[in-house]
Amino acid sequence: MKQLLNMEDVQVRIKTHTQEITALDLEHLTLHEGELVALVGETGSGKSMTASSIMQLFPTQKAYIGSGRIVFEGTDLLTCSRKQLDHIRGKEITMIFQDPMSSLNPVFRIGDPIIDVIRTHTGVSTKEARERAIQALKFVGLPDPARMLNRYPHELSGGQRQRVMIAMAMVCEPKLLIADEPTTALDVTIQSQILYLIDKLKKEKGTSVLFITHNLGVVAKMADRIAVMYAGRIVETGRTQDVFRSPRHPYTRMLLDAIPRISEERDRLPVISGRVLSPTEVGGGCRFANRCPRVTDQCGQAVPPLATVGDWHEAACFEPLEEAR
């Protein structure tokens, strides 16, 4: 498969009143054409910050990319002008945000932003843009799409709003879709429908997907590869079946062990002791060292790099777990 996205040595820094902290320290992450890569980890692990760095849209003006390369189809996005980025965002790379309730402007009909996106990136007439918008709403399964264009966000359910966001994201047939926890705040049946739509986009349109989630069950079902994040760094990456069958980083193993299984009877679920270090507490060693059962002196002195532990399988650990046989 042809490589679509390659992130190398990307650091996102945030200026505070007293100091400058590194919120994201990403060694490398790749995504190929037609591939769905899942980015998983605890809240605050850097998943959404990774997405923001690709789009170069940060929630605060105090955040900036300090170093690294983000190469999309051979072009380093960090060297692009604002005009070049505006052409890429919304057309080549699109994003579905976490909260469908607040992602749409309540004073505009839902058809307005979809039509604007089409006209901005294709230059077609308003009539043609409207027809394409109707087809996009039809693709995501919204009833009576022509009438739906004239409705306001408050008239739609949460699931319908998220379908609108997916329609807006796919209407220009992007090569890369970033889905940042797209099923947050939706009930289970609606979650299933949204996941089906994203999978449909991948299979029918050939769209590559960077899928950000907490839900490892969804990852097992949908993802081609998985990248596990902890405290702003990727600690393990590999093919989904390999990581689930034989995790090599202690954090990944403990994360998988904490999943409740209907086939097992347990009095208590395993928990990971300790807490995640804040960016201000991070020193020169492994960020998981304070919680790791396999910690050694070396772990507190140096940051373990991502090292090959199998085919398409890497782990950032000086004492990786043995491969399952």
UniProtKB/TrEMBL annotation:
The keyword NAD does not apply. The keyword Transcription does not apply. One of its GO terms (biological process) is peptide transport. It is a peripheral membrane protein. GO terms for molecular function: ATP binding; ATP hydrolysis activity. It comes from the Bacteria. Pfam families: ABC_tran, oligo_HPY. It is found in: Cell membrane. Keywords: ATP-binding, Cell membrane, Membrane, Nucleotide-binding, Transport. Residues 5-256 form the ABC transporter domain. One of its GO terms (cellular component) is plasma membrane. Belongs to the ABC transporter superfamily. This is ABC transporter ATP-binding protein. The lineage of its organism: Bacteria, Bacillati, Bacillota, Bacilli, Bacillales.
